[in-house]
Amino acid sequence: MPIQQLTLSQISQDVQQCIQNCLDCHSICLNTTAYCLQKGGHHAEPAHIKLLMDCAQSCQNSADFMLRSSDFHARFCGVCAEVCEACAQDCDRHSDDGADTPMKACADMCRRCAASCRQMSMAMA
Amino acid sequence: MPIQQLTLSQISQDVQQCIQNCLDCHSICLNTTAYCLQKGGHHAEPAHIKLLMDCAQSCQNSADFMLRSSDFHARFCGVCAEVCEACAQDCDRHSDDGADTPMKACADMCRRCAASCRQMSMAMA
Amino acid sequence: MPIQQLTLSQISQDVQQCIQNCLDCHSICLNTTAYCLQKGGHHAEPAHIKLLMDCAQSCQNSADFMLRSSDFHARFCGVCAEVCEACAQDCDRHSDDGADTPMKACADMCRRCAASCRQMSMAMA
Amino acid sequence: MPIQQLTLSQISQDVQQCIQNCLDCHSICLNTTAYCLQKGGHHAEPAHIKLLMDCAQSCQNSADFMLRSSDFHARFCGVCAEVCEACAQDCDRHSDDGADTPMKACADMCRRCAASCRQMSMAMA
């Protein structure tokens, strides 16, 4: 179910939305890693796969720090926004101008997550 | 958004639902850990907190193996069902007969996740 | 430093050795993932990369359950032994009869970790 | 075995030492979490347990970004140094002026990890 329907304690609406985006971005990046390895060719370029793995792990990390209401969540969200943005651009580059639907969907999700992580990091600054 | 609306490659409806349950269960267990530490008293019993941490990590692990379409996902879902079941029972025990809403919600989510992980592990047997 | 020199509470010698093997196996599998993507060709086969990612995550998971002295550590070590064994065999297959030193080192580490996880899982059975 | 004896590809001596410190710090923080919950009293204060969980996860995250030779490892090491430093100070506060050996060992390890993560983050700046 969408995270807004989970009963989470002491998590504001804004933070919930950012957690949801991070979990979604983690999921799609991990799944896209498998898709890209399967496709091969430029999809399987080392730098691209590594960026997808980076983004998947960074988003999980951010989500967990928010779920624990950690004091450090905004610091990690700041770095996470950079990772997501880099991953979005790289997914775009491999998306065949949007014709490659999974790559396009991953790029869009990474960009959405970058935006909410950036906002989270600035809210705390 | 619910995971069904993400564009995931080569993940069946059943597996998507189990991934969603695992991510939800991970989220609520991690959040409940913070809630229980805050509450103190019997909520903060070592065995209870440890079980919540176990369940959070096991569910993340299961979700990731399914997102990668790993051959081992069913094996991990089998163990995960046991962890979730144990955590559900322990959350019930701390829920003041359901009056403690966060504990009740966590117990329910763990039970739902246990059921879908069990099904996943049997589908592959 | 080797984990035996860390001051860990309530962790027997046997468990410490298994934790060390799991952390080593996690490290080498993650590092080998990057190596294999860089090499390309058969090293970057989807099934091989996926198995390395599976093994890295499973070993981390096992190590964490042991470090928390979780009741479920033996169950996870049992599955982890299977993952490590599969990864060892796959790394051997890509090791050019041992001439590819990083692949050979990864295969050996996976086999060592499989053995200690198997032992851990049986000690509790 | 110490990570320096693992055959890791394209990881310099400095980075290997930092990975080792991060893995050690992850291990001791996770183990100390269980120790503190067991002890109860001030050891189990929510903020303290949360910081130990933060530090364990942050160190794992940093280690993994270094093991993948990710471009973002220095950014994460920078935040990780802050988390480790905060955790070191909090562990000191609970160490009974050093008489509580596990707390003292955890504080020392966190401080050592903070130093090498800080250095890693500056090397890249």
Automatic annotation (TrEMBL), chains A, B, C, D:
Pfam families: Csp. InterPro entries: Csp_YhjQ (IPR005560), YHJQ-like (IPR044543). It comes from the Bacteria. Gene3D superfamilies: 1.20.1270.360. This is Four-helix bundle copper-binding protein.
